[in-house]
Amino acid sequence: MERRVPDLWFTEYQTPNLRLGLRIKDVLLNKRSSYQHILVVDTMEYGRVLVLDGAIQLTEKDEFCYHEMMAHLLLCAHPNPEEVLVIGGGDGGVVREVLKHETVKKVTLVDIDEEVIKASKTFFPAVSCALDDKCVEIRPMDALLFVKGHFNEFDVVIIDSTDPVDFARGLFEPAFFKDVYVALKEEGMMVAQTESPFSEPDLLRDAVRGLRMAFEKVFLAWGVVPTYPTGLWTYAIGSKKLDPRMQKRPAPQRTKYYSDAMHSLAFELPPFINEIINGGNLEEAKGD
Amino acid sequence: MERRVPDLWFTEYQTPNLRLGLRIKDVLLNKRSSYQHILVVDTMEYGRVLVLDGAIQLTEKDEFCYHEMMAHLLLCAHPNPEEVLVIGGGDGGVVREVLKHETVKKVTLVDIDEEVIKASKTFFPAVSCALDDKCVEIRPMDALLFVKGHFNEFDVVIIDSTDPVDFARGLFEPAFFKDVYVALKEEGMMVAQTESPFSEPDLLRDAVRGLRMAFEKVFLAWGVVPTYPTGLWTYAIGSKKLDPRMQKRPAPQRTKYYSDAMHSLAFELPPFINEIINGGNLEEAKGD
Q1: Domains in chain B and their CATH numbers?
Q2: What per-residue confidence (pLDDT) applies to B209?
């Protein structure tokens, strides 16, 4: 009789009506932490995949698309980023990219769930590799509380959150953006992942609105992440003073998605995205 | 007892290890033509969806991303496109976009399968709406044969093919690109959809190689199409003389994905795509 491997799949319900299926070789971790369900699967298509509360956070094959954009859009737009705060992102992917900038003296990582950090160190060494760097301080706590205690301290804040449900909901609220504003230095900027304009247009619109209530200048950038719903992802930016579209420093070496050319490209929105956030008012979209 | 709707899904196997699931309200058409299986489903997430041999060709919600890029990249890069040949594309989406250019005097649509045209007219009126235009000539035949009989005739050729299997395989071969070259006028250009660099890197590399055997100048552009595998899609361009990165005429009114800004940006490749087609030689990527 022919030898057959078992037909194992992980399925992500991206919306109630849309699902992505990945054939898996094995389940490497499957547990509940104090905050969420943590799953690590080894897939045929995308290598190892980290899944929190059923939603894909990263895959070995395409994590570069997301982590490079989250880090370099702002770090390359700031003339001298030294103090960086990363909220969420316990996997370490954003921190790894941030540390490619030699100007950076300190990265503070605030993730509510230490179990995510532990899982990433165990199963994603190429993603978590910078978490033990001497410049990195890890604070396992609620970012809403952390931010309230800091003033005029960070050059760049990167909000690498999960979807805005449960404990992550507050990370998309205007009150939080205002606290981040206060935690930023005079030339400070923040970026938050704001999901897909196809599957979550209301969330995107509301996040941009919330940012506009907190920041003088608001911008939206976009990029591709194959394993996130619809593949098209957005990054909303609040800035006190600087124009993040203007690159101040070159892209780090050996990036795979981000580049100097991609920097300016990311801020040119397809018309339908502009329509979602502005009802077609292009000037407002650009934060001018 | 609670009333419940049936749990109906259409599943596309994008690779043997990756599948996309769409919850459906109903199956509207489900038949085999002489060439392929034709399925039309009504989905909750993306509206009506056309599926050929199990692969999604278009959805009502995101078809604009693909059809606008396929048509406008070259039509806006040509100073005076009058004669346009569309190969495949029996749904009519590309033809609809082509006819937004007032310079165009004639569009010849060559699709091997008349049943696709019929299905589109029945179920996708907003996509097929231009197929009855007086400028459109429909030739239901094998494009490999059609192209062999034409010389110095077209300004732009658009190859809107299905995946390169079975009868569509020849549409990705150097011999076919050479025939297209001969069918083009002196300033002529062609574009072909060349799949995703994530799921089909070898196909992309080979198609670009094949184009380089036929054309003086070869370029690659990219864009997003949520319902195509990985969401990131590529468009390979062969040109006799013109540089398609230089826009000659403005974007048509009311486009949703394509715009003047998106035109030049589409040719800026993320580094990993450049690596796939050139092993990192940026100059060659740009066709210089």
Answers
A1: 9-59 (2.30.140.10), 63-285 (3.40.50.150)
A2: 95
